[in-house]
Specification:
Blueprint lengths: L12 H4 L2 H49 L9 H11 L5 H7 L7 H8 L6
InterPro entries: Fe_hydrogenase_HydB (IPR008953), Fe_hydrogenase_ssu (IPR003149), Fe_hydrogenase_ssu_sf (IPR036991)
GO molecular function, one term: ferredoxin hydrogenase activity
Organism: Desulfurobacterium indicum
């Protein structure tokens, strides 16, 4: 057997953490895990309830619109009137420009509109 140039001695585990300390730490960790699971379960349940109620509302709206003959947007009298007066026909270039707007404001434009001086 080869002799090592140094002597290694491992300290007993009780020197690092006592049995009572180990139980305290594991008990606190278990409480955090259980509390976290309860909180996550609560929010997950609320989310599920919200999604379910939203689905029910959308299905109910669809039923109402189908009863009134407005199952598709092109059947809606207001939309029909829009296309007759402004938008020409669905997916037309003019309709696209009228219905899809893009707003980009620069800070200096907002400041000017408010009567302020922009120092940007």
């Amino acid at each position: 057997m080869k002799r090592l140039p140094y002597k290694y001695e491992e300290g007993p585990a009780s020197m690092v953490v006592s049995r009572r300390g180990f139980l305290k730490v594991t008990g606190i960790l278990a409480a955090f895990v259980a509390f976290g699971k309860a909180v996550i379960g609560y929010f997950y349940g609320k989310r599920h309830d919200y999604i379910t109620s939203r689905q029910d509302g959308l299905y109910e709206d669809d039923k109402i619109h189908q009863r009134e003959g407005l199952a598709a947007s092109q059947e809606n009298p207001t939309v029909k009137k829009y296309y007759e007066e402004f938008g020409e026909y669905p997916l037309s270039e003019k309709s696209h420009h009228l219905l899809h707007t893009h707003h980009y404001y620069e800070r200096w434009q907002l400041a000017k509109a408010k009567g302020e001086v922009y120092h940007g």
